[in-house]
Amino acid sequence: MLEPITADITDQAAAYLAELRTLLEEQGLHARILTQPGRLPRLRVINPDCTTLCEVVTAAPLSGEWSLWWSWAEQITGVGDMTAAVERIGHVLTPAAHQPA
């Protein structure tokens, strides 16, 4: 069961997303934290070389464990492995023609 959205959860989610944003921007992706009252913050990530490739990522706890999540509610990784998260998000936002064989 999902935990209620409190100010502490919102603040923690924003902190994780800010860390992820910094790492993604270091890899050349554009990222912006989106906020809306009553909702968890979200991170919109865009490939500036192909702006149709974009994704919205959230950070949320499930049973006390924090993870990063795709917009389709699939876990990317736990927040303790930001390097893997950056690699996976970068892979999804890379055009197929540029993927390694």
Could you provide a short overview of the structure?
This protein is α+β, with helices and mostly antiparallel strands.
Number of β-strand runs: 5
User: Quaternary arrangement of the chains shown?
Assistant: single chain
How much of the sequence lies in strands comes to 25-35%
Mean pLDDT across residues: 91
Note the gap between the termini: 40 Å
Individual helix count: 2
Q: Which sequence of strands runs across the widest sheet?
A: 1-2-3-4-5
Structural class: alpha+beta
Order of SSEs, N→C? HEEEEEH
- Main sheet specs: 5 strands, antiparallel
Question: What's the helix and strand layout?
Answer:
Layout (H helix, E strand, L loop, with lengths): L6 H20 L3 E5 L7 E5 L7 E9 L2 E5 L5 E4 L3 H11 L9
Antiparallel strand pairs: 1-2, 2-3, 3-4, 4-5
Please explain how this structure is put together.
This protein is α+β, with helices and mostly antiparallel strands. The protein has a domain at 1-30. It is built from two helices and five strands. It has helices at residues 7-26, 82-92; strands at 30-34, 42-46, 54-62, 65-69, 75-78. The chain has a five-stranded antiparallel β-sheet with strand order 1-2-3-4-5. Helix 1 (7-26) crosses helix 2. 24% of the residues are buried. The model has no long low-confidence stretch (mean pLDDT 91).
